[in-house]
Amino acid sequence: MYFRILHDEASGELTYLLADPDAREAVLVDPRGRDLPVLGALLAERELRLRWVLRTHQHDHLQVREPAQLARLGAPLVQGAAGETLRMARDGDLLPFGHELLRVLATPGHTAGCLSFAWRDRLFCGGLLAVDACPHQPIPAQPEALWDSVTQRVFTLPDETLLFAGHGRRARAVSTVLEQRRWHPFFAGLSRDEFLARVAALPLAPHHAALNALA
What we know:
Elements: E1 2-7, E2 14-20, E3 25-29, H1 36-45, E4 49-54, H2 65-70, E5 77-79, E6 86-88, E7 94-97, E8 100-106, E9 115-119, E10 122-126, H3 143-154, E11 162-169, E12 172-176, H4 177-183, H5 192-200, H6 206-214
Parallel strand pairs: 3-4, 4-5, 5-6, 10-11
Antiparallel strand pairs: 1-2, 2-3, 7-8, 8-9, 9-10, 11-12
GO molecular function: sulfur dioxygenase activity
InterPro entries: Metallo-B-lactamas (IPR001279), Mito_Persulfide_Diox (IPR051682), RibonucZ/Hydroxyglut_hydro (IPR036866)
Domain Metallo-beta-lactamase: 12-167
């Protein structure tokens, strides 16, 4: 297998490229529209056909621009919410590429339609564990659902499962279920009510506070 990580130093956002080199089929997880030239070059370098473009989550203020740009990659765009040129995935869906399979897990909370994608011993979980670290979503959209997704879906996976984030803080891209279950600052050792209280105390980013004031 071929596996690449692309990390944006400024925003901390991460994109993943998975490929079956024998079948010459690839998948992109959380690509960004502004990276199309780089992504196209990576695919062309190894003569890979892009089978799927997978988005673990989407933000309302980017929802129009990003899908239109990503559609230029020429592969089905899969996410947890329906839209024009978008394929909505559901919990348990299987997405084949080459001789490999990705399994879809519904993990709402960071945003309402969050998905995670399981492949071999890895889970690509986007912003699920970035409780206060996402530049576009400073607080979870659905804190109650986030608690359930993390504690009941992610933390019940085998300890050695590798968790690949959508946002890297201090250049950290990968951890394990065991590590996050024991030491995550918002989940380890907290009750559901304690978690919700900590999230409720998080400050809003200025533009989100302004939107709430207008609501």
